[in-house]
């Protein structure tokens, strides 16, 4: 994509309400239900039961109006609802950036984890309000809600980075976050 293939957008004022972690104005809003997370949870029997049953919302992504275009800097707020599938905590699909560029997440509400995997090494960053998690280029990333209230975070990422979901289906994420008596534990990754 060449720079300025479409007209650059104008400077923008976005208001952010810390109490609700909402922004105004908004751009696209995405809702991912259990049925959208095929092949990701280890317990496929439980996933199928849930996806073909009440098919709960697992997370939503509210984007600012800044478009995913080269040289732009889009932002989004992701809300992962509390819960699990067969003991594995609610999580995002996870993706690699086809155009390897970094990204930052800022925790807003609740408690979660930022799971990172570069194909060999696995890292976990505990996320809470006020924590910035840095995702370097070449690290696939997934977010997990390990608490009992909505986990929300702000993401800021280069507009050309893109989302490769197949990479995660092919390589996994190195670990899984499972419910444990003390909260959560990280288990070695086993394919779904
Ligand atoms: C963050 C950003 C978005 C991403 C979203 C959900 O808000 O990284 O780019 O789309 O999380 O993650 P996923 O796309 O893996 O479902
Ligand atoms: Zn990303």
Automatic annotation (TrEMBL):
EC main group: isomerase
One Pfam family hit: GPI
Which transformation does this protein catalyse, written as a reaction?
A: alpha-D-glucose 6-phosphate = beta-D-fructose 6-phosphate
Keyword check for DNA-binding, yes or no: no
Per the UniProt entry, the Enzyme Commission number(s) are 5.3.1.9
- At the top level, the lineage of the source is Bacteria
Per the record, the pathway is: Carbohydrate degradation; glycolysis; D-glyceraldehyde 3-phosphate and glycerone phosphate from D-glucose: step 2/4
In terms of InterPro entries, this protein maps to: G6P_isomerase_prok, RmlC-like_jellyroll, RmlC_Cupin_sf
| Residue ranges constituting the Glucose-6-phosphate isomerase prokaryote domain according to the UniProt record | 32-176
Q: Which Gene3D superfamilies match?
A: Jelly Rolls
Instruction: For this UniProt record, give its keywords in alphabetical order, as a comma-separated list.
Output: Gluconeogenesis, Glycolysis
Protein family according to the UniProt entry: Belongs to the archaeal-type GPI family.
Q: What is the name of the protein in this document? A: glucose-6-phosphate isomerase
Source organism of the structure = Actinomadura alba
């Amino acid at each position: 994509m060449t720079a300025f293939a479409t007209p650059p957008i104008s400077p923008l004022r976005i208001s952010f309400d810390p109490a609700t972690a909402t922004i105004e104005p908004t751009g696209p809003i995405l809702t991912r239900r259990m049925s959208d997370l095929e092949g990701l949870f280890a317990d496929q029997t439980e996933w199928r039961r849930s996806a073909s049953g009440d098919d709960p919302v697992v997370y939503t992504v509210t984007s600012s109006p800044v478009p995913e275009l080269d040289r732009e800097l889009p932002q989004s707020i992701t809300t992962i609802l509390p819960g699990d599938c067969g003991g594995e905590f609610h999580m995002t699909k996870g993706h690699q950036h086809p155009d390897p560029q970094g990204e930052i997440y800022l925790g807003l509400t609740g408690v979660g984890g930022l799971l990172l995997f570069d194909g060999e090494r696995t890292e976990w960053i505990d996320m809470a309000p006020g924590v910035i998690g840095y995702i370097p280029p070449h690290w696939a990333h997934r977010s997990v809600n390990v608490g009992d209230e909505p986990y929300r975070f702000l993401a800021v990422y280069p507009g050309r980075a893109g989302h490769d979901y197949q990479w995660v289906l092919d390589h996994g994420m190195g670990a899984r976050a499972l419910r444990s008596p003390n909260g959560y534990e990280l288990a070695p990754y086993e394919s779904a």
